[in-house]
Design goal:
With 267 residues, the protein is of the alpha+beta class. The chain has ten helices and ten strands.
């Protein structure tokens, strides 16, 4: 009888550590279920840099930047997409380029300096979450003079181009043509700016603006709004008359100039 009791006692004591291990494993598993994150960076690995790990009375989960981000497997992931009407956004450049716009790019919602989740489309394309071929594009087969964009473009003038450049320098990334052109002083200049900018696209408009040395005619030629100058242009001055022929300081002179154009010069 004594031998049996000792065996039972020994077996019971020997099983005690196994029970404790089982309890510890159970508690760890339970903790893992209620704690999806430990620190803020756990939640931010999906690109939502405003996300943080939130303590909800002992349970921890990621607090994401809704509605564009939502928690998935302990990480804040993009919940929006180009084709979701109620929560639309571009996720990366591929979304903007899907319809052939190789120059389009996405102002991504991810990162420390996030964009607005919309596409920036290249010339000839338009759209917010996907760049699609624009119906408002210059027809290369149509003479520019018939399109009627040359005169409005030149109306911007050197002063207008200077204002637009300053707007870009001061504001950084411009949201669109309307925002860029709103800095111009007159209604006519704003209308002309929006008209030309919308046709060629904001990206092309800014690129040309930064590379044409504030020459309105050259600027409009590069954009395609005006015909480029004829490399074979030819003109000569045939006569000059000034009246009076001479005079003291302050004298008003009338000048008459005659010239002959034998080959068109362009704008």
């Amino acid at each position: 009888g004594d031998v049996y009791k000792r065996q039972v006692s020994t077996q019971s004591t020997g099983n005690l550590p196994n029970k404790m291990v089982s309890r510890v494993v159970f508690l760890l598993a339970l903790l893992a279920l209620v704690r999806s994150c430990k620190v803020d960076t756990d939640c931010q690995t999906g690109g939502d840099m405003s996300a943080y790990c939130k303590d909800n009375n002992g349970t921890y989960d990621c607090h994401c930047s809704a509605p564009h981000f939502a928690e998935s497997k302990g990480v804040c992931q993009l919940a929006c997409s180009p084709d979701d009407a109620s929560n639309s956004c571009c996720r990366d450049d591929a979304d903007c380029q899907a319809n052939g716009d190789k120059g389009g790019y996405c102002k991504s919602l991810k990162g420390f300096n996030p964009g607005n989740g919309e596409c920036r489309c290249d010339a000839g394309y338009t759209g917010s979450t996907r760049c699609k071929k624009s119906t408002l594009s210059l027809d290369p087969g149509l003479p520019t003079s018939q399109l009627g964009f040359c005169n409005p473009c030149i109306q911007l003038g050197e002063q207008g181009l200077n204002i637009l450049l300053n707007e870009i320098l001061n504001a950084g990334v411009i949201g669109g043509c309307n925002k860029l052109c709103s800095g111009l002083k007159t209604k006519g200049a704003k209308t002309a700016c929006n008209l030309v900018c919308d046709i060629v696209g904001i990206k092309t408009f800014i690129k040309v603006l930064n590379s044409t040395d504030l020459d309105p005619i050259y600027f409009c030629e590069i954009l395609g709004a005006c015909p480029k100058g004829n490399p074979d242009a030819k003109a000569s001055i045939t006569a000059v008359e000034v009246s009076p022929a001479s005079g003291p300081s302050g004298t008003k002179f009338a000048m008459e100039l005659e010239f002959d154009v034998s080959n068109t010069t362009g704008v």
